[in-house]
C-alpha cells in the first residue's frame, strides 16, 4: 500500500516538475 501511494505522489511530482520546466522555458524565451 505504501509503495502505491509513493508511486502516485511521484507521478504528481513529475507532472508538476514538467509544468514548471515548461513555464521556465516560456519565460526565458519571452525575455
Tell me what you see in this structure.
The chain has one helix at 2-30. The protein has 31 residues and is an all-alpha fold. The chain has one domain (1-26). The longest helix has 29 residues, at 2-30. The chain is rod-shaped and about 45 Å long. The model has no long low-confidence stretch (mean pLDDT 91).
- Per DSSP E runs of 2 or more residues, the count of β-strands stands at 0
As for the number of domains, it is: 1
Low-confidence spans:
none
What's the shape?
A: rod-shaped
Percent range of helical residues: over 70%
Q: What do the pLDDT scores average to?
A: 91
Instruction: Please work out how many helical segments DSSP would assign.
Output: 1
Structural class: mainly alpha
Distance between the termini: 46 Å
Radius of gyration from CA coordinates: 14 Å
Task: Write the SSE topology.
Layout: H1 2-30
Key terms for this structure?
single chain; 31 residues; mainly alpha; 1 helix
Brief summary of the model shown:
With 31 residues, the chain is mainly alpha-helical. Helix content is 94%, strand content 0%.
